[in-house]
Design a protein that fits this description.
Oligomer: heterodimer
Structural class of chain A: mainly alpha
Strand content of chain A: under 5%
Radius of gyration of chain B: 19 Å
Largest sheet of chain B: 11 strands, mixed
Largest sheet of chain A: none
Shape of chain A: globular
Helix content of chain A: over 70%
Helix content of chain B: 25-40%
Number of helices of chain A: 20
Number of helices of chain B: 12
Order of helices and strands of chain B: HEHEHEHEHEHHEHEHEEHHEEH
Distance between the termini of chain B: 28 Å
Number of strands of chain A: 0
Structural class of chain B: alpha/beta
Distance between the termini of chain A: 22 Å
Chain lengths: 521, 334
């Protein structure tokens, strides 16, 4: 088992290495260092960092009071639906959101009358809006979960000691939040730093370009591989460093299921209650508006004569590719965790970090670079018109592996702490071990699969490079509609995609306390 | 490259190739043509040209579409001698020298008809098939006094949408335009323009549709664009603004590859592109001007803005394109 796992890890890394090899080998030269004296490079770099910092800080800062409100007011109506919506917002295909935002805030958007005169969706505004929408709900879930980890006695003790609100915050809340805040900020920063579709669709020119988009432009349009490499190495360096730092400091499951609620917490005052209520309603509104606007915009089509069949093939294509990628990613993710668990068992902290970093490195190796590198490498060798879709599946698999690993990791490590010693002593065969683990992991495996499926369904970047003209995916169809400003068709296609994703989420991600699952073993 | 792709009715689905695989038994190997996607869309020239050519050649034409002219060149660069193309259609004259440098282009041996005199065509490898002049389009029902020169437009505060010169040939055209009008002062001109630029889009189509949605006062397109609105939509309010400095032209070209296994047939196809039949089809599907003299056109074409040509030779473009792009992106990024 361990041997297979190491092989998979090697394969995973090999794809990335090959991609860079393809780029270096093709141009016969390394990165173009002269770019570092070009003001454009520094412009792109500073914009990438600026938008990612703003996106992550705003997402987390705005999420905090909402999460706090959810915790202190468990009576708030519709909490469960709200949390589900939060999850949906995080895994929703980006293009669905972009369509909604253009319908609302675009050049002929519904909200134009209430927006300032010089409002322009294209540029930093639009990018921030989209990034906050995609990441704030996720931050809300995470922070709320942390709050739920505060043990009841802490609050009772605080009450007895007559601690002020500020003291309570400092001694009870802050210690629980701090590690997660750092991790959240870093994680959202990386996601926004690597963001492609949002910046491509809402960027609006060289004033608002990120490294990831600059890589794409340098490769696809200037065919300037050395320059693309400089951008790619810069991107890899910054995101990779940050990732390492996070891994050593941060903790916390990413999208784990809700833990059972703690029972007792202090009740806030009337004013605070009111503020929480308002905030809660505002966020509901912010999250529902783009989705509701899709319904109204889609209804502008002639619903009787609309060519629904035109959406069917791309939908099947997306789901098919997604299922393949998700299945492979779950298997690969499980295998990649074996050497990590082994290293942990032997107490090799450093090796564990390294392995974890390698297992999740595709989160930071720009998907664009990997795709284009392989494209350059394979195009002369393989008929990509025939086999392009295989690569779409493969690269999407690698892109969602980090998420799967993060889903499985906490649960597996928990399992190891409880049973690993025993299982080792009993000298079970690997297969038998697996049979014992599966029931314990079942829910997490399903969640990981669903998450991988949803993320792969929404892919645009990889399809942009390897996609096939006759067999397009639904996000790509939306992209073509929106690119040609046919917002009604775009809205209809987005709505279908959204409903499918919501359905898949409902189907797979079951919110039930973990206790029951552990009892079965 | 950008044209009235199938224009406003074209469904994106049509982008997924309106190619019919009419497999005729005569030719085992289809004739592979690399072109850009709007060329083969349902309303573009591709399907009609294909039908007309297949009627006379007893063969099967297979279009392989990429994003735009620049992508055709990039694909050739990557594939090198292993490319699948017999013919490439839809590069523009600015890219000729860089394409020639790949060493993949064969001499065309085509007997050219009498071409428009302003073309003064001498090239032995590339054959022109249509042309156009870049121009800023405005809605005359909203703007009574359009800008009369490029300088006036850049000095004004009218909102403008244009295309990225790295991704789209019209954007590249604007770059040459600014360079020829401003010369060493181009950087300042770009900075000034970026003050009132709504957005820089990836392709022509995004920009034009955004303009039609009321997104800006001016959009960069072609002098022939108003013809589309007249012929297809019967709207006369969209007009091209003639500029006193002159306009940059774009000539679209086709060529035979020296790696082709069917050089005669490839030759025949390129010859067909300048035949009276194809020259009639192109203006009302690709919305560009024909290159052959004496081509019959809808009446509106005679009423389009008549402009002087300025610009650079493709040798100059090949030499300076990189540094121009660097200058543009640094200036426009601030």
């Amino acid at each position: 088992m361990l041997v297979i796992a190491l092989l998979v890890l090697t394969g995973n890394i090999a794809v990335s290495v090959l991609a860079f090899q393809g780029l270096i080998g093709f141009s016969g030269q390394g990165a173009d260092l002269s770019i570092f004296s070009d003001s454009y490079f520094w412009g792109v770099l500073s914009f990438s960092i600026k938008q990612a910092v703003l996106s992550s800080v705003l997402s987390v800062v705005l999420a905090w009071p909402v999460a706090r409100g959810l915790y202190f007011l468990p009576v708030l109506r519709g909490q469960q639906s709200f949390l589900q919506l939060c999850l949906l917002a995080f895994v929703m295909p980006t293009l669905v959101l972009i369509t909604g935002l253009v319908v609302l805030f675009g050049r002929s958007g519904w909200l134009l009358p209430v927006l300032p005169d010089d409002w322009n969706l294209y540029g930093l505004h639009g990018i921030l809006l989209a990034h906050i929408y995609l990441n704030m709900p996720f931050a809300i879930r995470m922070l709320r979960q942390q709050y739920n980890n505060i043990p009841d006695p802490a609050w009772r003790l605080a009450l007895q000691l007559k601690l002020t609100g500020w003291q309570r915050f400092l001694h009870i809340e802050w210690p629980v939040l701090r590690p997660v805040l750092i991790m959240l900020l870093g994680f959202v920063f990386i996601l926004c730093f690597n963001s492609f579709a949002v910046v491509l669709a809402l960027g609006g020119g060289p004033q608002a370009t990120t490294l990831e988009v600059a890589i794409y432009q340098a490769l696809k349009y200037d065919f300037n591989i050395p320059e693309a490499l400089s951008f790619a190495w810069t991107q890899l360096g910054i995101a990779g460093l940050l990732f390492l730092v996070l891994y050593r400091n941060g903790s916390g499951g990413w999208l784990s299921v809700d833990l059972p609620q703690s029972q007792w917490r202090p009740s806030p005052g009337k004013w605070t209650k009111g503020v929480y209520m308002c905030l809660y309603l505002l966020v509901w509104l912010f999250m529902l508006l783009p989705l509701v606007s899709l319904v109204f915009q889609a209804a502008r089509n002639d619903l009787m004569s609309f060519d629904y069949l035109a959406l069917l093939q791309p939908l099947m294509m997306s789901v098919g590719l997604g299922v393949i990628a998700a299945c492979m990613a779950v298997v690969i993710g499980y295998l990649l965790l074996l050497p990590i668990r082994e290293a942990r068992y032997r107490g090799m902290r450093r090796r564990q970090w390294l392995m974890e970093w390698l297992a999740t490195h595709t989160l930071i190796a720009p998907a664009m670079v990997t795709s284009v590198g392989l494209y350059v490498l394979l195009l002369p060798e393989v008929d990509l018109d025939e086999y392009g879709l295989l690569l779409v599946a493969l690269l999407n698999t690698l892109a969602v592996v980090p998420f799967v690993v993060q889903q499985l990791r906490p649960r597996l490590l928990q399992y190891d702490m409880q049973y690993d010693q025993l299982v080792r002593n009993l000298k079970f065969s690997p297969l038998l071990r697996l049979r014992i683990e599966i029931p314990y992991l079942r829910q997490v495996l399903i969640n990981a699969f669903a998450l991988g499926l949803l993320l792969a369904i929404g892919d645009v970047a990889i399809f942009a490079i390897f996609g096939h003209q006759d067999l397009i995916t639904l996000p790509w169809l939306i992209y073509s509609y929106a690119g040609t400003y046919r917002m009604s068709e775009a809205a209809m296609a987005s709505l279908v995609l959204l409903l499918v994703c919501a359905g898949l989420m409902k189907l797979f991600v079951v919110q039930k306390p973990l206790q029951k699952a552990t009892d079965k073993i | 490259m950008a044209k009235f792709k199938s224009a406003l009715m074209a469904s994106a689905v049509s982008l997924s190739l309106g190619v019919t695989y009419s497999a005729t038994a005569a030719q085992a190997e289809p004739l592979n043509v690399y072109t850009y996607d709007s060329f083969v869309s349902e309303w573009g020239p591709g399907p009609k040209l294909e039908a007309a050519f297949e009627a006379q050649c007893n063969c099967d034409v297979n279009f392989i579409a990429v994003d735009d002219g620049v992508s055709i060149l990039n694909r050739l660069r990557v594939e090198g001698k292993k490319n699948k193309a017999d013919v490439i259609v839809g590069l523009d004259d600015a890219l000729i020298e860089e394409t020639r440098a790949t060493g993949l282009i064969a001499d065309h041996k085509v007997k050219l008809p009498a071409l428009r005199t302003e073309l003064n065509w001498q090239d032995k490898q590339f054959v022109p098939f249509d042309m156009g002049y870049f121009a800023f389009i405005y809605d005359s029902s909203k703007i009574a006094e359009p800008a009369k020169s490029l300088r006036e437009l850049i000095d004004s505060d009218a909102s403008v949408i244009y295309q990225d010169p790295r991704t789209s040939t019209p954007g590249q055209g604007l770059m040459m335009w600014v360079e020829s009008v401003y010369g060493d002062d181009s950087e300042a001109a770009w900075k000034q323009l970026s003050e009132h630029t709504v957005t820089v889009t990836k392709g022509w189509w995004e920009a034009y549709s955004m303009f039609l949605e009321g997104g800006a006062d001016y959009v960069l397109s072609y002098t022939t664009s108003p013809a589309y609105h007249v012929v297809v939509e019967e709207k006369t309010n969209y007009k091209a603004a003639p500029f006193s400095e002159g306009h940059v032209a774009q000539v679209e070209v086709a060529a035979v590859l020296n790696t082709s296994k069917q050089p005669e047939l490839a030759q025949q196809f390129v010859q067909f592109m300048v035949s009276p039949e194809a020259q009639q089809i192109l203006p009302v599907t690709n919305w560009m001007l024909p290159v052959a003299q004496g081509t019959e056109l809808p009446e509106i074409f005679s009423r389009l803005a008549d402009v002087d040509r300025i610009g650079f030779s493709s040798e100059e473009v090949a030499e300076k394109r990189k540094s121009w792009i660097r200058e543009w992106r640094s200036a426009a990024a601030k």
